[in-house]
Design a protein that fits this description.
The structure is a single chain. The protein has an eight-stranded mixed beta sheet with strand order 3-4-5-2-6-1-7-8, with helices on both faces. It has 396 residues and is an alpha/beta fold. The two termini are 13 Å apart. The chain has 15 helices and eight strands. The chain has two domains: 187 residues, Rossmann fold, CATH 3.40.50; 110 residues, no CATH class.
Length: 396
């Protein structure tokens, strides 16, 4: 299997570009083996199999049923399709049915009940489940507006789920860390990030700053990393060897002075070093590609304005009225942006003019935050499918 992640700002055209890419791949002459076994060059054309392509949604709101107009969900339909896996994950099972849009199968879309809570952990579990099949696709196109969901897949993120056997120990350690002073937490943190200079007493688990009577678990936080300086993990820019299991992320000045962030940092690294986290068996991909759609920001503003006008004309107000009647204002407001603002408008907290202006303002602000996030990712920026496929051919 080959994973192609396609991200972009809101209204940048991710859904349509993903479909165009899928059709381009389906029409490609690359000889592929079925079942996601990868590309075999120098194979006779007569032996080549037609590629299979799935689009997997990674928009945190489009996973929900009934949220259609406000999320910009593609107007697909559920069709009988016995050869595809169930889109389930405990959130609603559609037996022998698959969501199709423009003849391309889409997964993890339009299947979670609004009453259900859904987060990145649920998403990862469901992503793994749909690909746990013998009929794996050759290409998986992962696309949507929720960067965290996408990053969890292409970076194989550890989600912090503690194994049952270690839950008691984890919770006790968490409680112990919470009673440390800011100074004590900072001293623990600094000892970790400067692990190559740890004092022997620290490596032995003797923390002079810990109060008398403190649980042995916290006093052994740093002792967990005994021998770490010889593990020779790749150093960071400071050329300092890291303890085994130590996060490469450093805290900024604000977090360094925030007790809760320090507690979380220490607890997370200790759990990782001791293998307390449950192992997540992500699907194996032969290759992974990460792309982001480039749009001029003046052009994007016009696209956002046009889309909002279209949503209002398509019946956004009526959709939200129906949803509120079934699920109430608080739940619908949880979905943010158009849903929250339309709920406030229906409650009389906003005028019609304010409602429309605020939807545009918040969508523009959201697009700006997305751009800031995307610039930090190692994505290849493209404007067209032609540019994207050209990159794929060169880097296959």
């Amino acid at each position: 299997m080959i994973l192609i992640t396609l991200l972009g700002q809101t209204s940048s055209g991710k859904s349509e570009m993903a479909v165009e890419l899928a059709k381009t791949l389906l029409a490609s002459n690359l000889p592929l083996s079925r079942g996601g076994q990868g590309v075999f060059r120098n194979v006779e054309a007569s032996q080549a199999c037609h590629p299979t392509v799935w689009i997997v949604n990674c928009d945190s709101r489009q996973v929900f049923k009934e949220l259609n107009i406000g999320t910009g969900k593609v107007e697909g339909k559920w069709v009988e399709s016995a050869n595809f896996p169930l889109s389930s994950g405990g959130q609603g099972v559609f037996k022998n049915k698959t969501f199709h849009y423009k003849a391309i199968p889409h997964f993890l879309i339009d299947y979670v009940a609004i009453e259900q809570k859904y987060n990145v952990s649920n998403f990862v579990q469901d992503f793994i489940k749909i690909l746990d099949t013998q009929n794996k696709p050759d290409y998986v196109i992962l696309t949507g507006g929720t960067g965290l969901y996408a990053k969890a897949i292409y970076n194989e993120m550890e989600l912090g789920q503690i194994q049952p056997d270690f839950e008691k120990l984890f919770n006790q350690t968490k409680s112990d860390l919470q009673i440390l002073s800011l100074f004590e937490l900072q001293e623990n943190y600094l000892s970790l990030v400067n692990s190559s200079k740890l004092k022997p007493s620290v490596l032995a688990g003797q923390l002079p700053s810990c109060p008398t009577g403190q649980s042995e678990q916290v006093r052994l936080v740093l002792g967990t990393y005994q021998g770490a300086t010889s593990s020779k993990l790749p150093p960071d820019k400071g050329d300092t060897a890291k303890p085994r299991g130590f996060s490469t992320q450093r805290l900024n000045n604000s977090d360094f002075n925030n007790p809760r962030r320090l507690q979380s940092f220490l607890l997370r690294n200790m759990a990782k070093a001791n293998n307390w986290y449950s192992q997540i068996n992500y699907p194996k991909f032969e290759k992974k590609f990460l792309f982001a759609i480039a749009r001029e920001q003046d052009q994007l503003k016009k696209l956002i304005e046009k889309r909002l006008q279209a949503r209002i004309q398509q019946g956004l107000l009526q959709e939200v009225q129906t949803l509120i009647a079934k699920y109430g204002h608080p739940r619908i407001e949880d979905f943010g942006l158009e849903y929250r603002l339309t709920s406030l408008y229906l409650k009389g907290h906003l005028t019609e003019t304010d409602w429309k202006e605020n939807m545009l303002k918040e969508n523009l602000a959201y697009a700006k935050r997305q751009l800031t996030w995307l610039k930090k990712e190692p994505a290849v920026w493209v404007e067209t499918v032609e540019q994207l496929t050209k990159f794929l051919k060169i880097n296959f």
